[in-house]
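Amino Acid Chain and Its Fold in Token Form
===========================================
What this section holds: a protein sequence and its matching fold, both as plain text.
Structure line: whole-number tokens from a learned vocabulary of local backbone shapes, matched to residues.
Purpose: to set a sequence beside its fold so the mapping can be learned.
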Amino acid sequence: MSITTPQPASIPRRLAALQYDLLIVLALLLVVALSAQLATQARLIGMHGGHAQVPLLYQLLQLGVVCAYFVLSWTLGGQTIGARAWRLRVVAVGTSAAPRVGRALLRAGSAALPLLALLLGYLWAPRVALLAVAALWLIDYAALLFDRARRTLHDRFSGTQMVRLPH
């Protein structure tokens, strides 16, 4: 019986799995939005000076739900729904084990760091903030091209790696 080193996940597979997970995240956020709107009798989001005012607590709730999806998926087997569909798994570097909660939180937090650029929307046009977020995520994922283990910056920061499962 020979032990084989897990193969790094290919870029197309990672992006395909991410698309699946984005659909799951969207569904979760829709459930949160509906629940919040029902709980506040549709007064959650107000208008002020022609701009929507979204309460910080609601934004934190959304962030918490998304982080919970990823952290629970990674710690309870290393796979999100998208990763499962594309036969991928997140592991702690140097092991074949799913990351523990601390690493999973680091991974989720560092992957979400580009969202801080949304604060630029308070200084400039919202599209500038969205472009900044997209640019930062592009930089994060561009690291895949220069790393032999095909790790993103958030993989490197958290000590994780996405690998392809054998058939």
Summary: The chain has six helices and five strands.
